[in-house]
User: Which sequence fits this backbone?
């Protein structure tokens, strides 16, 4: 066990906990429990919004899985990673102020709240909530595995111990502090990720004797490593281009980033966040993936993808700095899990329980809701934790499965709901069902569609179905149109 | 298709539509830059690459240059085309024109 690496980590985890307790205090003084626990009372300023978006986008796959693949694929994979650069301005710009205004009108706490108001259809909400919980669990398992592997690789503690330390930290602070804790820890984590990324890249360049020497070594290993196409032409154009859909345009449909698009304080915060998070996401993506690719010049013989970054880090950085660095990816992972955990919990408590199994509005029922929030978070956390004990091999692909599934379910209902008056519930529902079905089928049996990732045909099919079905069925009620396009607030009973 | 029932449109949504349009436009522009620089300069054999500061030219332009350029563009987009507005309920003083 490596105590020098462990020490900065312990301090770091302690900071996370203290932020959670601070948030809990705010929670107990807040008038509206649900709004405070699940959306932090819409109080995020520009800097915090930027950091939480960054922390939510960058996950285990950006720090462990992705750079591991870059190690094998070379600079071509860095090119692929940079496709994510527009995500911040796309999600904030497209969902944008309209999303935030409507969320305030209807007091939305979750993405499904907006879908419920727009489509007024319980099956849209139920399907949305269930697929959200399902995919988040899959994504969180992948993230937990990444985190535990990382602890294993860096400190020498066993995978299971690592998993326990790691999972208990995230689950506890999310349970205790809710959305505000998630966002505050995201901010600290975002800063740590930036520092970690830069430190690692500098360390690698130093160990490799400068950029020119490192790239030359890479070229001697295999010239394909410095081309956009990767060894054996693995990154063929149709494949890499389909990532523009999967990790760029489709990201608008991810519920855990979308929810941040109505949690901010004012339009100025949003403007600041667009610029800040674009820069930070870009620096982290470029820095980490380039580190993975160049790392091959320093340690050429590693085979297991997920062990590459820990091994390189320990080689090029002093143990104490390595400890600080490892906090970066752990932060990335924790900050993705925490936001998914809180949303999965919100889906169950707010979207399913309160809407459809609604308890009476007595004072006692109010108390039940308060406890239910924290307990549901804990329960989901435990399920994910147990699933992570028997880990599958490469986390990037597992994570991408959940990633695409959420886009298949949410992208069109959200975007068309906001911008197309004619979109109606039947269209949304058939689109969600067909999108999910197509995606499951294609991931399992088709794999690649004319060389593209299957998210491309999935989103094309669900778009066509949405439009066609909406056009042949009834237009939405005037009340809905007023609520989403009109000036007046539609009073609800 | 016309709306059969008329209601007063919220002009903030018209501006929001415009901002969404710019956001998508900038992403498409980013794609074009990414594609032309990476494949325009990177499609020849690796022996014939030009190198800038140790990195292949295609990578320098597409990845490093793209990051700098589009960070700058995102700032310009927000400065030039995005408007500050109240996100809360409709207030008469937010109205620009009247009926929409």
Assistant:
């Amino acid at each position: 066990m490596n105590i020098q690496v462990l020490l900065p980590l312990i301090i770091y985890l302690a900071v996370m906990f203290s932020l959670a307790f601070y948030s809990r205090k705010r929670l107990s003084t807040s008038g509206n429990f649900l709004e405070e626990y699940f959306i932090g009372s819409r109080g995020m300023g520009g800097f915090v919004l930027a950091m939480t978006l960054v922390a939510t986008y960058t996950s285990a796959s950006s720090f462990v899985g992705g750079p591991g693949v870059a190690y094998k694929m070379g600079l071509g994979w860095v090119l692929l990673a940079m496709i994510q650069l527009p995500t911040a301005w796309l999600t904030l710009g497209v969902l944008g102020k309209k999303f935030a205004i409507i969320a305030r009108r209807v007091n939305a706490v979750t993405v499904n709240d907006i879908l419920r108001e727009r489509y007024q259809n319980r099956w849209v909400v139920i399907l949305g909530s269930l697929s959200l919980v399902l995919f988040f669990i899959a994504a969180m398992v992948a993230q937990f595995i990444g985190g535990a592997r990382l602890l294993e690789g860096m400190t020498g503690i066993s995978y299971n111990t690592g998993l326990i330390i790691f999972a208990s930290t995230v689950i506890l602070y999310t349970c205790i502090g809710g959305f505000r804790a998630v966002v505050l820890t995201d901010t600290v984590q975002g800063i740590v990720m930036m520092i970690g990324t830069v430190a690692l890249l500098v360390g690698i360049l130093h160990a490799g004797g400068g950029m020119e020497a490192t790239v030359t070594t890479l070229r001697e290993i295999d010239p394909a490593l410095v081309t956009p196409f990767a060894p054996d032409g693995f990154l063929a154009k149709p494949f890499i281009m389909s990532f523009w859909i999967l990790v760029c345009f489709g990201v608008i449909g991810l519920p855990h980033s979308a929810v941040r698009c109505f949690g901010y304080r004012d339009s100025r915060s949003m403007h600041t966040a667009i610029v800040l998070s674009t820069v930070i996401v870009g620096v982290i993506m470029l820095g980490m993936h380039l580190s993975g690719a160049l790392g091959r010049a320093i340690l050429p013989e590693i085979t297991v993808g997920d062990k590459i970054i820990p091994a390189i880090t320990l080689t090029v950085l002093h143990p104490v700095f390595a400890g600080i660095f490892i906090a970066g990816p752990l932060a990335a992972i924790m900050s993705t899990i925490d936001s998914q955990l809180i949303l999965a919990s919100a889906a169950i408590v707010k979207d399913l329980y309160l809407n459809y199994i609604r308890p009476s509005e007595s004072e006692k029922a109010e108390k039940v809701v308060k406890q239910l929030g924290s307990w549901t978070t804990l329960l989901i956390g435990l399920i994910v934790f147990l699933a992570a004990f028997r880990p599958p091999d490469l986390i990037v692909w597992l994570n991408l499965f959940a990633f695409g599934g959420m886009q298949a379910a949410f992208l069109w209902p959200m975007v068309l709901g906001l911008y197309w008056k004619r979109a109606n519930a039947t269209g949304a529902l058939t689109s969600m069902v067909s999108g999910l079905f197509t995606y499951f089928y294609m991931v399992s049996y088709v794999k690649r569609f004319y060389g593209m990732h299957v998210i491309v045909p999935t989103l094309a099919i669900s778009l066509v179905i949405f439009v066609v079905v909406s056009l042949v069925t009834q237009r939405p009620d005037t009340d809905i149109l007023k609520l989403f396009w009109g000036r007046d607030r539609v009073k609800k009973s | 298709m016309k709306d059969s029932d008329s209601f007063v449109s919220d002009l903030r949504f018209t501006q929001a539509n415009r901002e969404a349009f710019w956001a998508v436009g900038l992403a498409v522009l980013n794609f074009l830059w990414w594609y032309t620089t990476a494949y325009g300069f990177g499609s020849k054999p690796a022996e014939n690459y030009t190198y800038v500061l140790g990195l292949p030219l295609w990578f320098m332009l597409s990845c490093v240059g793209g990051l700098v350029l589009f960070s700058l563009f995102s700032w310009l987009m927000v400065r030039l085309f995005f408007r500050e507005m109240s996100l809360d309920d409709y207030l008469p003083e937010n109205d620009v024109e009247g009926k929409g």
Residues 11-42 of chain B form the longest helix (32 residues). Chain B has a mean pLDDT of 85. The two ends of chain B are 16 Å apart (CA to CA).
